[in-house]
Amino acid sequence: MKAVILAGGYGTRLSEETGVVPKPLLEIGGRPILWHIMKIYGAHGITDFVICCGYKGTLIKEYFLNYFNRNSDFTIDLSSNSVEITHTAIEPWRVTLADTGLETMTGGRIKRIAPYVGNETFCLTYGDGVSDIDIGKLVEFHRQQGTMATVTAVRQPGRFGTLDLSEDVTRVNAIREKSVLDGQTINGGFFVLEPSIFDLIEGDSTVWEEAPLQGLVSSGQLSVFRHGGFWQNMDTLRDKNLLQSMWDSNNPPWRIWN
């Protein structure tokens, strides 16, 4: 199974830092938040990734092009111009880096990577949120529901789209913009999707969280996986500092890998 990560946005609420690098490359504990997300999936055996690049996407491509050397020890014999790898600590990842456009909306980015996913169930998440979610249980739940899509519902106050959940707690009734009077159950990303969702996306201007998700809700095809554990996104500098402080504590709750 592939995991698709949306990593092409401008990250405007972190403009003091994203003017230099794209938000998915902003570091927590000396590693990009993108790396942390991939480690979460990798801990559950998902190691085939499709990264939707956009804003400063060349920097994300360069990061992975140089990843092997950056994470290896090697000896260079200058006289023979040869390199001997003496130690390496490389994850068994396969990473597809797709340029999905500078101004493309989230739905359009998903539509553009359809050829890399093929006719298979796949995971999707945002390039700025970490969690201790059990991906294996999420995928199993999705298969049991038999719907086109599953979204992970998390508890978090703030500025995000809120979810109205049906009584049987496995379907979403509505998605709307959050107000301060709403409850705290929100879209936490970490979707599992069937390839049929590509038919719901018209093109680059489509916002995934609007017409496609609303269509899934209307047809009863959006299931909800409730995650009561840790979830935190990195939307502002305050969020970034919070995640860094958790990492510095030597026990960050999203570090589920060895």
UniProtKB/TrEMBL annotation:
EC code(s) of this entry: 2.7.7.33
UniProt-listed InterPro entries: G1P_cyt_trans, G1P_cyt_trans-like, NTP_transferase_dom, Nucleotide-diphossugar_trans
Enzyme class name: transferase
Domain called Nucleotidyl transferase: residue spans: 2-202
Entry keyword set: Nucleotidyltransferase, Transferase
Pfam families the UniProt entry points to: NTP_transferase
Domain of life from the UniProt record: Bacteria
Gene Ontology MF, one: glucose-1-phosphate cytidylyltransferase activity
Protein's name in the database: Glucose-1-phosphate cytidylyltransferase
Species assigned in the record: Paracoccus rhizosphaerae
